[in-house]
Amino acid sequence: MEITAVATQGGYGSSNWVTSYLLMFSDSGRNWKQYRQEDSIWGFSGNANADSVVYYRLQPSIKARFLRFIPLEWNPRGRIGMRIEVFGCAYRSEVVDLDGKSSLVYRFDQNSLSPIKDVISLKFKTMQSDGILLHREGQNGDHITLDLRRGKLFLLINSGETKLPSAHTLINLTLGSLLDDQHWHSVLIQRLGRQVNFTVDVHRHRFHAQGEFSYLDLDYEISFGGIPAPGKSVSFPHKNFHGCLENLFYNGVDIIDLAKQQKPEIITMGNVSFSCSQSQSVPVTFLSPRSYLALPGFSGEDELSATFQFRTWNKAGLLLFSELQLVSGGLLLFLNDGKLKLNLYQPGKFPSDITAGVGLNDGQWHSISLSAKRNHLSVVVDGQVASVASSLGSEQTYSGGTYYFGGCPDNSFGSKCKNPLGGFQGCMRLISVSNKVVDLISVQQGSLGNFSDLQIDSCGITDRCLPNYCEHGGECSQSWNTFHCNCANTGYTGATCHNSIYEQSCESYKHRGNTSGFYYIDSDGSGPLEPFLLYCNMTETAWTVIQHNGSDLTRVRNTNAENPYAGFFEYVASMEQLQATINLADHCEQELTYYCKKSRLANKQDGRPLSWWVGRTNETQTYWGGSLPDPQKCTCGLEGNCIDSQYYCNCDADRNEWTNDTGFLSYKEHLPVRKIVVTDTGRPHSEAAYKLGPLLCRGDRSFWNSASFNTEASYLHFPTFHGELSADVSFFFKTTASSGVFLENLGITDFIRIELRSPAVVTFSFDVGNGPFEISVQSPTHFNDNQWHHVKVERNMKEATIQVDQLLPKTQPAPTDGHVLLQLNSQLFVGGTATRQRGFLGCIRSLQLNGMSLDLEERAKVTPGVEPGCRGHCSSYGKLCLNGGKCREKLSGFSCDCTFSAYTGPFCSKEISAYFGSGSSVIYNFQENYSFSKNSSSHAASFHGDMKLSREMIKFSFRTARAPSLLLYVSSFYKEYLSVIIAKNGSLQIRYKLNRYQEPDVVNFDFKNMADGQLHHVEINREEGVLFVEIDDNARRQVHLSSGTELSAIKSLVLGRISEYTDVDQETALAGHVTESSCVSQAGTDATSRERTHSFADHSGTRDDREPLANAIRSDSAVIGGLIAVVIFILLCIAAIAVRIYQQKRLYKRNEAKRSENVDSAEAVLKSELNIQSAVNENQKEYFF
């Protein structure tokens, strides 16, 4: 019958009831199978008293003749007591038994069947792991085959000329596992054209078959149980099916019933019977490492022999131990790393090992035969003689009398059994000892041998990798009790490969402190989409750059409506990945450049489009770059500056000269551009050209999406969270409260909850039917510090984890056999609970569940007590602004203001640097030098006296191989100056002349040659007459200046070379290449004799160590890079370098002007871009910023 439900009660009027039990079923009273719920629940919860009824609906139902209830636990104050009721209905069964050489062939009327539709249903049971269940083929290679291989079902469908694949090629589809267990398994195949539904038991898969045709060209016959016709052209090894088929229907036709009635449509091949023969094999299950089966041999026999079959997932475990009587040794047969090992040990002799087989822990049945007689030992594995040993010596081999299968009893039993690798967990059958088959039913009844923790007359092996709970292509492996996921090369991590190792957007990478570069993006996080590689351009906002294959300028000629041109664009990501990326972004755009000459975009008579483009929605778009999504509009039409005011696009003027309609497409729902079509270049002198830029997206709508919870009673509610098998939740929070619930979702008994339990503890609580569990992360510092903290939790089939910030994650393993489905049915509450108690006070940001973002801001707009957005990002992210950059709050996020830093970039981390060629310089004039008229005052102070410096801070880095060199020079209208030079001997000198009437102070660092081509760092701090200098973070000196305390009437800052004559000392003039006038006397003057020099040398070395390098590379270049910062005029230092940038901009603008003048021909249009690009590149070679 078909059993649909069971119900239990305790013993009437007693204290006897069962609290948990197992349910087993069989159709023959032998070879029992255990019923499981949710693929992992072994036991049923029973009664809590004698009177109440506990009812279970069985989904799926059971088709069986026998049921067995096995009590596991009962009322400790009573005994086992059960009243049982079984619910079900009658079950009709038509059965045929095939012996491995027989089959059925059904020939049908060709007019009765559709060539594109097939429905096949059947049930089967077998002990054999291989066999053809059905086969139908045609003349051209079309075929449909259902093949049982290694206990799995393979459905092969082919349409076209392709031959049947060999056993080593990729199979179309595989379902099921361990189907050779002598239990009934149901199969349903539904084919409509190329759409196929394939179902085995409770596992279903939908797919499209291979081939060009929507129908299969097949012969009008189908065989079941084999491929009997010798003329069939099969090219793969196959065996006939050996077992039973039940209720076999082909397109509604009862095949077994026709065979019973010996209808002419059915051809019976071989011996076929219409009742299912029962197997005489009795399996036994070793449930735990403590399981064993002890069977008596015949003590004193001169031969030791045993045969058996086993199947397991474990790599190691004892299979057999037997004591050798005369030699006082023993024989061990065990698995180690999936290989069979035979170990023979004797006192005083070195143990001998024999290894056989490989991969024997694959869940398949393997046969073992062991024989030891006199000095001859042999092992046969799966019919292959593995090894023969003659190491037993001349002694007779006598059995010790007892064979221990699967393990050893406790030492208290006095056994000499040895078990080096632990007990065996798996199934055995067909056990023979001393050439006699063991009756395991007698063992079960206690009349033969001894055992512990066994399940006799049942093989309880299960495939824990079916279904495969390893996500994103993770490879599943298993042992008897659990499964493991190998996530290598998947881009995901975790116990089930659920969590992506990549960020969801460039914005996320940016706020981890990453700079511009190529990154893998996983737009849907833990969702089904794979990560892909793209470029992130980290500016003030993070730009995502997605390239395609059509970035070159393409010219189009000779097209018309009958012969259109179509250009297709393939991106580095799939459309699904692109859509997820675009949806996540704040803004996306794509530049479409379209040039035309006598080529229109639309027909002005009837408005019919002549050129168009297609986006991701596969809809024709007739608006062009820069326009809103209005039909046949361009930028010039919106701005009112088209070359012909009658039209909305320049190209529609249809002039015999080059013009263009160019701009950015920014309507996200239509992006990216996938195709462009041009049809109007067939007339004389008609031509078009286009160029499509990469897809550009900026921002991340979810990253800064936040809500502020102002009262404990406030919360946001969302639809029920569905994370039955895998659930991950991540978010940021900040608060000053000591506790509060972040998130809660309830079911009837199941629930999940994440909360701030105390100032330093975040807790994840959940229940999936096995009782509530809690895991907490405790921090050494408090979480309620008004800083952003990141929480990530995950629950899957294997474990539950929680991690906060960079603290070590906490993990709670899932029970081996228990409920696995998280079944929730209430609304999801964020920031509070349904009871409006223990609500959260603070901000929650970037909330994601299974990779999907929740729009907190949109929901907060209509929820009392909750405000959209949250300020105060700089308190957490301000540390990302480096080198003096200031964090500035934004409505969504923050930015780094680098105005007062000598660095640039999104985090003020990119040095502002310049390459100086021979004779080059950068000059910034603080004040212009006025020419005085006759009526003007002769005192410069009247013009420049307001620019005085009593203190300054200067930082810079440089690299050069030239000496002497001028690094930095600050001049004054009063002939005062500051110079930093490298002297001829390679020493670094800092020269201050703060009084025009005195000689300069010189601070000399000659501890090494500074013109060595290496990068050196200089920091100068002056506070009036006290000077502090640091070189390369290790040489530090403090000097008192005697020439003065102020640098008056600042004139200019010079880097690289002094371009005009000035009154400086000889060393500075030499380093700066100053051309002296004839008025300056040089004869007999020692320019350095009057300088006050403070020399700091490293005297630990020899004199030669401080000489300039004799073979130093002479180069006409110096690099002055990085931090050039003066406290009072740091802005001006940056502006000094910007002078050259400004010159390049002017050059670029001049080239742009030339470009606009030369668009009269196609060649000019196409070449101007190359010319401009070449010109810019040449300028970049001279000064690279």
UniProtKB/TrEMBL annotation:
Disulfide pairings: 843-870
Protein's GO biological process: cell adhesion; nervous system development
Pfam families (UniProt xref): EGF, F5_F8_type_C, Laminin_G_2
Biased composition (Basic and acidic residues): 1088-1104
Lipid metabolism is among the record's keywords: no
F5/8 type C domain segment(s): 1-89
InterPro entries cross-referenced by the UniProt entry: ConA-like_dom_sf (IPR013320), EGF (IPR000742), EGF-like_Ca-bd_dom (IPR001881), FA58C (IPR000421), Fibrinogen-like_C (IPR036056), Fibrinogen_a/b/g_C_dom (IPR002181), Galactose-bd-like_sf (IPR008979), Laminin_G (IPR001791)
Domain EGF-like: from-to ranges: 461-498, 871-909
Keyword Disulfide bond attached: yes
Disordered as annotated region, ranges: 1081-1104
Entry membrane topology: Single-pass type I membrane protein
PROSITE patterns named among the record's database cross-references: EGF_3, FA58C_2, FA58C_3, FIBRINOGEN_C_2, LAM_G_DOMAIN
Record domain Fibrinogen C-terminal: where: 497-548
GO cellular component annotations of the record: basement membrane; membrane
Listed SMART domains: EGF, EGF_CA, LamG
Transmembrane segment boundaries: 1118-1142
Cellular localization per UniProt: Membrane
Alphabetical UniProt keywords: Cell adhesion, Disulfide bond, EGF-like domain, Glycoprotein, Membrane, Repeat, Signal, Transmembrane, Transmembrane helix
Residues covered by the Laminin G domain: 95-276, 282-459, 705-870, 929-1133
GO molecular function (one): calcium ion binding
NCBIfam families xrefs: GGGWT_bact
Family statement: Belongs to the neurexin family.
Name of the protein described by the UniProt record: Contactin-associated protein-like 4 isoform X2
